[in-house]
Design goal:
Elements lengths: L1 H21 L3 H31 L6 H19 L5 H29 L4
Helix pairs in contact: 2-3, 2-4
Amino acid sequence: MTIALLLLVSALVIAALVYSRSRPSRRDRAMRDVLDAADALEAQLRVARAEIEAVTGGDGDDPVGEAMREMLRQRLWLRDHGPDASLAQLDEVRTSIDAARGRIDQQLSRIAEARAPGT
């Protein structure tokens, strides 16, 4: 009986260890969330660039270019520092990306309003 109980407890401990190691950590989830947000912002920037070019005919400055360069800088920072970054740093990058997405949303709304007939 004692040996069976000891084996059961050992099996439960091993199962708990395997489960905890197979689950992504909070930090891993934060890193994945930052990368997903960066991908979404990049896609949104491409849409913004296409919309702006449709309105301006592709002439003039590239207002999306600086945002794309900033996104590249953030991706390089994540590559170089992401594995050692704290949760706070990852949250800060995510907040920055979300704020940029909000600004792009506003710009796309303004473009859509400007393109709408009768405005």
